Hints:
By secondary structure, this protein is an alpha+beta fold. The protein has helices at about 5-15, 55-60, 95-105, 110-120, and strands at about 20-25, 30-35, 40, 45-50, 65-70, 80-90, 125-140. Helix content is about 30%, strand content about 40%.
Amino acid sequence: MSEKMTVQERDAFLREPRLAVLASIGARGAPVAVPLWFEWDGEAARFFTSALSPKVKRLEADPRVSLLVANPAGENEEWVAIDGRVELHEDGAIELAERLAERYWDTSTPGHRETLELWRKAAAAMRRVEIHPTRIRTYRD
């Protein structure tokens, strides 16, 4: 029997380092989905991206999105979908990128350290994106 997660279960699920899939609306009205790292604070989801990323252009044109976070194959089926609108911010992107790198990577490896350095050098060209939920759906099998 399937059930919804409690708010506490949902927040615990979203605190785990899982990939999310962001769905936004493309220029021709078709959905475009991309995987990304994210952070959830119980009220908003955040991710970072380059200001030159195609997703920024899509989000500026239409701020409606859905962020889907799910267990990988082989685990019990559980997922959270955060539907809402985004806000793009010029501040805080590199700090978010550093937090997420610590969450998702072993930052002691040379390649990851080099990538972090490149991000720091390009910090002015990064954007922090916040998703403010209008609806949150959950599923647990």
